[in-house]
Design brief:
- With about 180 residues, the protein is mainly α.
- It is about 80% helix and about 0% strand.
- It is built from three helices and no strands.
- The chain is rod-shaped, with a radius of gyration of 66 Å.
């Protein structure tokens, strides 16, 4: 692209109108009014004037090119700043999204942990209740078995005492019976 195409339309410069340069043959040709031959038609002042105009147009064109470069540089700076801002905004949005996702994952993990702790506590309470119930049932059975054993032992003891007392009584009666028979 040429520099003029890059510059905004407001910065385009319309070149001043240049007079068409006359070919050297015309400069050297005699004037129709019959002036002396070999004398140039255009005066040195006219040539200097045209040269000054051309130089002024050249300087103006240089200014236009410099202005176009400055505008292009400013436009590139603006584009860079816009790109930088967009990249920063995208980075910030990605970071916010990542933080949001992280917080959601942490919340889900915390809820899952709390749920697992609650289930574990419930299972512990249930196991504790079952263990307590089993202990109470076993304790009751052991006490009942003990009481039954004690009752049976007491009954056996009482039965043994009763039998011993009967034997004693029978032996005493027999001995008295023998004594009374022998004493009589």
């Amino acid at each position: 692209m040429e520099e003029r195409e890059q510059a905004p339309k407001t910065a385009r410069h319309v070149e001043p109108r240049r007079e068409a340069a006359k070919p050297p043959e015309e400069l050297a040709a005699p004037s129709p009014s019959g002036e002396a031959r070999g004398k140039p038609v255009a005066s040195l002042n006219d040539i200097l004037l045209r040269a000054e105009r051309a130089y002024a147009a050249y300087l103006e064109a240089q200014k236009d090119v410099a202005q176009a470069y400055r505008e292009s540089e400013l436009e590139a700076d603006g584009f860079y700043k816009d790109s930088e801002r967009q990249a920063r905004d995208a980075r910030d949005a990605a970071m916010r999204q990542a933080l949001k996702v992280r917080d959601e994952v942490i919340d889900k993990a915390a809820k899952a942990r709390d749920g697992e702790i609650s289930r574990a506590e419930q299972a512990y309470k249930s196991a504790l209740e079952q263990a307590e119930k089993a202990f109470q049932e076993t304790d009751l059975k052991a006490r009942t078995a003990f009481d039954d054993s004690v009752r049976q032992a007491l009954k056996a003891f009482e039965d043994s005492l009763a039998q011993a007392a009967k034997k004693r009584e029978a032996t005493v009666e027999q001995a008295w019976g023998v004594y009374t028979k022998t004493a009589s």
